[in-house]
Design brief:
This protein is of the alpha+beta class. It folds into three domains: 86 residues, Distorted Sandwich (Calcium-transporting ATPase, cytoplasmic transduction domain A); 290 residues, 3-Layer(aba) Sandwich (Rossmann fold), CATH 3.40.50; 115 residues, 3-Layer(aba) Sandwich (Calcium-transporting ATPase, cytoplasmic domain N). The strands form five sheets. Strands 12-24-23-22-13-20-21 form a seven-stranded mixed beta sheet, with helices on both faces. Strands 4-3-5-11-6-9 form a six-stranded antiparallel beta sheet, with no helix packed on it. Strand 1 and strand 2 form a beta hairpin. Helix 10 packs parallel to helix 23. The two termini are 40 Å apart. About 1% of the residues have low confidence.
Length: 696
């Protein structure tokens, strides 16, 4: 159905909550789905009630999913034309007030300003008026009803440009909110495309391409180098390195041998593998990630906007006070009807909530513009307001705190052969493994020429070998070295020392033993240390959440100075960790991979590393750091605190001015021009104050 915001959810609740036979309502705003549990003979009465409030329900045959939710169409062109009319109305009125027009044209200019404003309101606000009328007729003064009253009041007192601009601003905020939900749905569609649609399955002794939803548990599946793994399972034959970064976030490919687990959505790199499927397509790792994102988005409690909540009490109180002011004194105290009607009108004008309605979006937009200037993309005013409340921040390791690209960190020669680096570079330059790539890249930077290699051979899951200078050399892992000759205790101790620092170790060897150790690691960004120190000064607790091994995680956490570290986590584990942190106070999550998407969605604020991050992380997160600089997060928090201060000032100013003139009105000193000043003057003051956020 066409349900996109908490105001519409509240309207539906009011309509259905007291309906006989309706037992429970479950809202999925992102999927645009309402699940109703009822004891009625059929859904027809519920559908009729929803149509009465213009919700246009459609029955679903399958479970709700954001991936299949209808696309939101936003009338940007109509909104743009309405904004042009509103701006033109403002220009004409200003020219009239500055006496730019000849005296004989001044009345015409006033009518032209009014006509342009009315065209803007009609073009952009009929939908708002319709929703507002439906809300009022159902006893619910929601945001649409509030805006309808505010705009109508401004039109009736002749504030045509103001009425038009208020309507345009409101519709723009609604469009941005709808677009944000649509982009969240696109993120889940991206996740669904991660796993292939078919798998190569053995059937009756032949290999066949089968849709993954038709593959039963226990099927034998083959995956070639470069292909994505279609279903979760366990290796039964073959050796290969598998890139699990989309699922676990590990910076290095993981060697896979018989008995090792495989995750759907990961990428087979070097060798052919055969494995047994351990789960159906709907229960695979990637399917669970999709569900986790949807559930996390749905469980985020929609924050009732302040103006909407305030209007529930403020607007009825103003209307009641105005009605009593117009009727009671003439009837009870023989007052003059026209005098008290005038006073009631003054009261209504003073009570017009335009200043409150305008000040909040202007402040938020100004704050978001200030953030954008610093390369911080904020996806909604709610997140800009919430930033000040963060108490802890969870951060992914690879690509977030570190560069996300391994490089050679150590070279330890174990013999005095001067060719060692050249020999290692020769073998590394022939391999496409990330460790080999780091070794070859460092050799090139240091001006080391790679040795010429003949009879090159790749050993899946172990390393590579080839003949150089008439002798066979090998570059590989510990298992490859042990297959050639026992590793001496002293060399084993050095390997363990390097691994304890979170480094991957490649051994250069020949038939006589190991001749050199080359360590490769993902290194920490210099900006990360500064950012984490800044966050501590703001009172934010930092926690690393990573799928990488514990040694590497602890080493990076020590260098960065983090408060806590949790390693070897799958996406679901990261989600649970964020939930636990959230129980202690508002929590943020920083990540750049698909594996971070559930945690990003569940956090109060999700931060995506936009330059190197995946589309899913970008769309799921609430804030994107456009140049992957963590130092922007403390800047964002400081900006959020400044914006909150301005919002409090605006609310106090708007209500304070109204309170003063309300008192003057009841004392009999209020006049219409004072009412206009209270409304327009307060509006101008809060807008001027709101623009200070641009310099925050």
């Amino acid at each position: 159905m066409n349900m996109d915001c908490p105001a519409e959810e509240a309207l539906i609740r009011k309509k259905l909550d007291g309906m006989p036979g309706v037992e429970e309502l479950e809202f999925h705003l992102m999927q645009r789905v309402l699940v109703v549990r009822h004891s009625l003979p059929g859904p027809e009465p519920i559908e009729e009630a929803l149509r009465a409030i213009d919700m246009a329900p459609e029955a679903l045959d399958a479970a709700p999913s954001a991936a299949t939710a209808p696309t939101t169409v936003i009338p940007w062109r109509k909104l743009g034309i309405a904004a042009l009319f509103a701006a033109a109305s403002e220009v004409v009125e200003l020219c009239g007030s500055w006496r730019v027009f000849p005296p004989e044209l001044e009345n015409g200019a006033l009518w032209l300003s009014a006509l342009l404003a009315l065209l803007s309101v009609v073009l952009g606000g009929l939908g708002t008026y319709k929703k507002g009328w439906i809300a009022v007729s159902n006893g619910n003064l929601n945001m649409n009803a509030l805006m309808s009253v505010a705009v109508t009041g401004a039109l009736l007192i002749g504030h045509y440009p103001e009425a038009a601009m208020v309507m345009v601003l409101f519709n723009l905020s609604e469009a941005i909110e709808a677009k944000s939900l649509e982009r969240a749905r696109d993120a889940i569609r991206t996740l669904m495309n991660l796993a292939p649609e078919t798998a190569t399955v053995e059937r009756n002794g032949r290999w066949e391409s089968v849709p993954i939803h038709d593959v039963p548990v226990g099927s034998r599946i083959r995956v070639r180098p470069g292909e994505r793994i279609a279903l979760d399972g366990q290796v039964i034959d073959g050796h290969s390195a598998v890139d699990q970064s989309p699922i676990t976030g590990e910076s290095m490919p993981v060697s896979k041998d018989p008995g090792d687990p495989l995750y759907a959505g990961s990428i087979n790199q070097s060798g052919e593998l055969e494995y047994t499927s351990g789960a159906l397509a709907d229960d695979s790792t990637i399917a669970r990630i999709i569900r986790a994102v949807e559930d996390a988005q749905a469980s985020r409690a929609p924050t009732q906007r302040f103006v909407d909540s305030f209007a529930r009490y403020y607007t009825p109180a103003i209307f009641a006070a105005a009605l009593l002011t117009a009727v009671v004194p003439p009837l009870v105290f023989n007052g003059v009807w026209l005098d008290w009607l005038y006073t009631a009108l003054v009261l209504l004008v003073i009570g017009c909530p335009c200043a409150l309605v305008i000040s909040t979006p202007v402040t938020i937009v100004s704050g978001m513009a200030a953030a954008a200037r610093q390369g911080i993309l904020v996806k909604g005013g709610l997140f800009l307001e919430q930033g000040r409340r963060l108490r802890s921040l969870a951060l992914d390791k690879t690509g977030t705190i570190t560069h996300g690209k391994p490089r050679q960190t150590d070279f330890l020669p174990l013999s005095d052969d001067p060719r060692l680096r050249s020999l290692a570079a020769g073998l590394a330059s022939r391999s496409d493994h990330p460790v080999s790539d780091a070794i070859a890249r460092q050799a090139a930077l240091d001006g080391i020429s790679p040795a010429h290699v003949t009879d090159f051979t790749a050993h899946p899951g172990q390393g590579v070998s080839g003949v150089m200078d008439g002798q066979r050399w090998a570059l590989g892992n510990r298992r490859m070295a042990e297959s050639i000759a026992p590793i001496p205790a002293e060399t084993e101790a050095r390997i363990r020392e390097l691994e304890s620092r979170g480094e991957s170790v490649a051994l250069l060897m020949n038939d006589h033993g190991v001749h050199a150790l080359l360590a490769v690691a993902d290194t920490i960004k210099e900006s990360s240390v500064a950012a984490l120190n800044d966050l501590r000064s703001l009172g934010i607790r930092t926690v690393m959440l990573t799928g990488d091994n514990a040694h590497a995680a602890r080493a990076i956490a020590r260098q960065a100075g983090m408060d806590d570290v949790r390693a070897e986590l799958l996406p679901g584990d990261k989600l649970h960790a964020v939930e636990k942190l959230g129980a202690q106070g508002p929590v943020g999550m920083v990540g750049d991979g698909i594996n971070d998407a559930p945690a990003l969605a569940r956090a109060d604020i999700g931060f995506a590393m936009a330059a190197a991050g995946t589309d899913a992380a970008m769309e799921t997160a609430d804030v994107a750091l456009m140049d992957d600089d963590l130092r922007k997060i403390p800047r964002f928090i400081r900006l959020s605190r400044a914006v909150h201060t301005i919002l409090v000032q605006n609310i106090s100013l708007a209500l304070g001015v109204k309170a003063v003139f309300l008192a003057l009105t009841f004392m009999g000193l209020g006049t219409m021009w004072m009412a206009v000043f209270a409304d327009v003057g307060a509006t101008l003051l809060v807008i001027a104050n709101s623009l200070r956020a641009l310099r925050a």
